[in-house]
Amino acid sequence: MSKPVRVRFAPSPTGPLHIGGVRTALYNYLFARKNNGKFILRIEDTDQSRYVEGAEDYILNSLKWCGFDLDEGPNVGGDFGPYRQSERKEIYKEYVQKLLDSGNAYYAFDTEEELEEMRKKMKEAGHPSPQYNNITRSNMKNSLSLSKEDVQSRINNGDKYVVRANIPRNEVVKFEDKIRGWVSFNTNFLDDKVLYKSDGMPTYHLANVVDDYLMNISHVIRGEEWLPSAPLHVLLYKFLGLEEFVPVYCHLPLILNPEGKGKLSKRDGDRLGFPVFPLEWKDSKQEISISGYKESGFLPEAFVNMLAFLGWNPGDSKEIFSIKDLINTFSLERVNKSGARYNFQKMLWYNQQYLRSKTDEELVFMAKDFISKSDITHDDKYILKATSIIKERITFAHDILSEGAFLFFPPQSYDEKTVRKKWNSESILHVNSLIEKIKQVNDFNAVNVEKMFHEYLKANEVGFGKVMPALRLAITGLGMGPSMFLIMELLGKKEVLSRLDNALLNIVNG
Ligand code: GLU
């Protein structure tokens, strides 16, 4: 029987969560839900020097906004806690001792200067990326090169040390990655990574492996950048006699910038004008503020749908997937090996699609802060109706105000191209005649206005295109837009007439 599915999202609280991290969380979440498994959050905060205040809350809020509910985690609890690595120090001690006792790890006392000296010498000897390894370690200060007594006295003295992995020479480490297939590494290319420090803190590698084992993690789904660490992780399982517990590794493709050249970075976002973080981020001193998808007006459903497609596809042309659809359809088998190019236009498209499925009330609610800060004085009923007219043309809820500005305010200017092409003596004549007709419409609604308009066209044997663009231009200032009859109903007879009068006075052609 296969192991029950238990997956973890294991971010380090070193700053705001990049969308690459959110996608990792999403794939873990989808995989857990699809397989009736557990989705766990583990905070990997062993590197105190990189700890950033507020980052853990940011991670939690991001997961919440996306709708990825946790089964276990720091604030949720669970049978395998604590879920913050800084609270698990005692646990790692036991494992590092096991590694030391079995000879799979050793103490190293080298100072920063000594390490630097070694690297310098190696470089001079023609090794471009020097390593602390099976060859160099014999010239360094460690428990493999020093006498037992020396080692003991250094430890008793309270000298600073690290514990390093004793990587064997010339062995092949193999594992089957669910996305990449068989991966094999020769240990000659691995260095004796630091696993533990004398301050009592493990490094990422040790803590990660020990916790995956103790938390019964079945699948490790994480970014490609961790692939080079995987052989060390597999070796650590072996060193600890836990080979049968090696999880299934799944290394996700990178998210690339829109040019497909390199990992998508904050710099790319700044350069091209889009966020790379789910939520706005402010550092604890409130000095740095970085924009997020949420505050830019994106819906979480759209954001999640778009993210799912960055590295995965369902194998057909369907593009709109609710989170439920994603859970039903997702499989690791359909995750790509190659990097996924980020496409902000597609993100905008997704937001548009999801906005259309919202009710007018929901859209107005979403835009409420923008509306209250604007000069709009219309009542709620009017705003709702305006929303229903403009809804098909907006990308963000707050676009009601910009895209639909003509529904709230008379035009300040008139679209030049339409003026040039459609505002002429003939159309001016029609507008003048229509003013009289409009005055005669008693019950001023879209149906009656439309009826009047078509009767006018028929009676004067004139085409729609000779009259409507001029009418639209005069009332909205634009060359295109939603149904003019709906717009006129909303504006009301008085406003329509006043705009037409203004247009006749103000539009200058040629
Ligand atoms: N703490 C690592 C990170 O920040 C987790 C890598 C892993 O999932 O093993 O991404």
Quick synopsis:
This protein has 510 residues and is mainly α.
Task: Walk me through the structure.
- With 510 residues, the protein is mostly helical.
- It has 23 helices and 13 strands.
- A three-stranded antiparallel beta sheet has the order 3-4-7.
- Helix 1 crosses helix 11, helix 19 crosses helix 21 and helix 20 crosses helix 22.
- The longest helix is centred in the first third of the chain and has 16 residues.
- The radius of gyration is 32 Å and the shape is elongated.
- The model has no long low-confidence stretch (mean pLDDT 95).
- The structure holds glutamic acid.
- The site of glutamic acid has 9 residues, from helix 6 and strand 8.
Q: Low-confidence parts lasting 5 or more residues at pLDDT below 50?
A: none
Radius of gyration: 32 Å
Fraction of residues in H or I helices: 40-55%
- Structural class by SSE content: mainly alpha
Question: Termini separation (Å)?
Answer: 81 Å
Query: What bound compounds does this protein have?
Result: glutamic acid
Overall pLDDT = 95
Largest sheet: 3 strands, antiparallel
How many DSSP-defined strands?
Answer: 13
Per the principal axes of the C-alpha atoms, what is the gross shape? elongated
Strands in their spatial order, largest beta sheet: 3-4-7
| Separate helix tally | 23
Strand content: 5-15%
